[in-house]
Amino acid sequence: MAGPFSAVAQRLVADTSVQPKSDRVGLPVTDRAAADASEEAPALRCTGLVKRFGPITAVAGVDLTAERGEIVALLGPSGCGKTTTLRLIAGFEDLDEGTIEIGGRLVATADWCEPPERRRVGMVFQDGALFPHLSVFKNVAFGLPRGNGRDEKVRAALELVGLAGYEERMPYELSGGQQQRVALARALAPTPEVILLDEPFSSLDAELRASVRAEVRQILAEARATAILVTHDQEEALSISDRVAVMWQGRIVQQASPEELYHRPVSREIAVFVGDAQFIPGEARGRRVATELGDLPVHGTAQGPVDVMLRPEGLRLIPATEDQEPNATVLTRLFYGHDQLMTVRLDTGRTLKARLGTYGGIRPGDRVFVSVRGAVLTFPREETT
Amino acid sequence: MLTLRPRAARIAVVARPDSSIEAGQRRSAIPRRRSVSRPPWIVLLPALLVAGLTLVPVAYLLIRASEGGSDLWRLLWRERTAQVLINTAILAVTVAAASSAIAVPLAWLTLRTDLPGRRFWATIAPLPLVIPSFVGALTIVAALGPRGFLQEALEGPFGVERLPEIYGFWGAWLTLTLFTYPYVFLSVRAALRGLDPSLEEAARCLGHGAWRTFFLTTLPQLRPAVIAGALLAALYTISDFGVVTLLRYDAFTREIYVQYRASFDRTLAAALALLLVAFAILLLAFEARMRGRAAYHRLGSGAARRARLVPLGVWRYPALAFCLVIVALSLGLPLGVLGYWLIRTLRRDEAPEGLLIAAQHSITVGAAAAAVTTLAALPVALLVVRYRTRIGRWVERVSYAGYGLPGIVVALAFVFIGARYLTPLYQTLPLLIIAYLVRFLPQAVAAARGSLLQVNPRLEEAARNLGRSPFGAIRSVTLPLAWPGIGAGAALVFLTVMKELPITLLLSPTGYKTLATSVWTSAGSGSYGEAAAPALILVLISAIPTLLLAGRHGGQTPRGDE
Asked: Which of A4, B193, B332, B428 has a CA 20 to 30 Å removed from the CA of B112?
């Protein structure tokens, strides 16, 4: 196999000599940089992927790249083609157009398709897909050749996911979160070039989801694995990944870091999809825009009639004081504990939502002054609004 | 990073394994999409071969019949043919109707009322399935026929010298009804269990009484299940050979056998057999359609809640009497007669001759047929379940249509083929096993298909992902998981082969006695005592899969036993 003796392999092999745990965790970051530098080709490069099912085009020209060690989230509403994209990469579907390279090696074109078992791709399925007739140990060992330190590799992988000592359990004896971690260990053990995760947290309870998500992020980082995570949950995508690719009707419409995606979405649809967004009209003149909330600084430059995007947490409410004339009235309040969501009516008649910390004493009926934090993003005005 | 382990420990406590596993399994039961990839040759070729083999009898009969040319039409176009056709149709319709009339009340009484001992009745009601119908017919003749037990009992005190004629329509109708109503019962009971009780409660709230509710809400919803079960009973009736032959009713199967035995020109037998197959396939197609609708009704509910039981009041006595009569006739009478004969034979100290050899023969052919049939069913089931291609759908249809091949038709076709082309194989065990394979393939495919469907295709994909070839994934993941179901299918084939009659009768090597043929020849020569021991063994053997199937999934009805 032309694939590199990747960082994960080193990790797993290193684990075979039993070390105190405290030594194992928290490797110097420079290690990662060194590993990256030694490899030039990205772990995964997809160009112009097209997949049709009869008359339906599920994937309509997807370009997607993942650098080594990067976690990329593929985010989109259900039916947008993201799972199909994942299955194309894994080799479960044949490609109609485009190419897929894994670790610099061409694995699929329109005419030729390497079977899944030779692609060096690991997959974590929605429900884990653990083999119910095999123990945890045998599940993880499934992808490893017999002998040659197999047992040690299995132990190392299980230790990595925090399930050392669970070797002889059967899958049905595990909780949902544990099952997902075994699935992850199973996918990581053969040290694949890329790990694909297909909505891996959606079968978990809401309370469990956040903690398993954080763990998976940590495990992937620790194994320095390259991962593609498919999800329809924007919060999940933003919190787990280094980069988010937003997919819409078979195409990738934006690829950016979580911060950039959230604060500078390229369209109003994406703005609304990745978080709460509201729009007010404005008149832009270069670096500033005039709105009913005053003259605001603009990201980049804009001209003419625009819509200004406001995130609820980007608004500030100040109780009316003698210095500051109020410009709005608080209508309702939803108290969540960690924050609260206010609905305010501006004196101009417009209603806006604002998300605040919970230490201010603002209540429905109060007069407040509404202002905007930082520079705002503008979109050319749409006729319909 | 140091927080990893403590957090893991906390999760182990917080998680509720049951609920999350259940959720996972429920999700996996309906895979979102399956790969439409082409099947590998290692699956496709054997599957096509097996499917082709099941087409051989019908194909051969077609050729054989067409050789008759215009003669054939002259032969077929007789009053006699029409008469047989009408006889068969009448028998099928009346048996189906009577079975439903018994089964629907029985299912309702045992599931939705406070009938005393309803669990007991529910367990015992499907049991007549375990009595091979020709054994049942034998005991009916013995009990109700001329010089039978009933007449003897009545002659002394009442001087009754003649009972109504048991031979002919009434005997065949009674026997077949008594031994086929369980098909309807199981079908209806499964549907009734799946019905959402809230619909009935709604009807009660809207001011309807228990009876009106039953007729207005419950029965209409059960209709697909009733019809599907009744069609199964009808299919069984037209395919049955033993009952109509023993009770001398001129139905298709008997006429085919007579034609085959009597004439040198067997074209007519071939043509009649084809007509019967057409008839059977038609019924089967309807049944499949109705079964689909019945399943749809069941799917909607998923009701975990139990329905409130309807109090019967004084009606409980007629209800109990009804259950008692049915069970006494369908179960008590045959078992009683067989037991009586057995005791009488044992008392006379007549060692049942050749019983051990016959049992040994039965086990041998049963085991061989089960192994061969299960092996042949695997590629077919894999193709049908995993690769939804056009070929797969055709293979599925062909293998399902096998249910519509009556035993006598398969037997006849292979007799012709064996005598004509495969003379060295004629009346040898290999040809007998091949005939069993063709006849019982649908059972084995259904079992394998059902258990393969339970295996989440994601598991196979995971195995591929971890470096296994397509075949390797099937071998290391799919087959181990599906094995219990496939094994149960093999057991079912084994047991049904043992009580199969016409194929065994026509294709066994000369002098090769099995349990079923022992019963048959003893019955033919009127030495009922000798039939008792092998017949009882057959009943016991048949009881095993029926109990297993009825116990495990109430909805599944074993088919194609004869």
From this structure: B332
